[in-house]
């Protein structure tokens, strides 16, 4: 089990470095291990425009392939409103800001932690 957690943590570092390199905005990572069978981490970021969202996503997909993690499932790349990149351990959501605000995934997945800070 620990080996899987280590691999997920290393993959998260790679994902976050790639996103920062692409100038992704408002990067939030949420530990969902134990909360969901979907993966260990969810990362939610914004791009400034459809073009920026697509560029962030393509850069991340390229970086994942370069690190031997090229089997990620990708959805939404054509429109650039909301791109989902699923590496298995990490689910990355790249949004335009207004789409991100509408779906508000951080609040849904990190609700207990956020609720504690709001009250």
TrEMBL record:
Functions as a ribosomal silencing factor. Interacts with ribosomal protein uL14 (rplN), blocking formation of intersubunit bridge B8. Prevents association of the 30S and 50S ribosomal subunits and the formation of functional ribosomes, thus repressing translation. Belongs to the Iojap/RsfS family. Keywords: Cytoplasm, Repressor, Translation regulation. Interacts with ribosomal protein uL14 (rplN). PANTHER family: IOJAP SUPERFAMILY ORTHOLOG, MITOCHONDRIAL ASSEMBLY OF RIBOSOMAL LARGE SUBUNIT PROTEIN 1. This is Ribosomal silencing factor RsfS. The keyword Metal-binding does not apply. The keyword Cytoplasm applies. Its main location: cytoplasm. It is found in: Cytoplasm. Pfam families: RsfS.
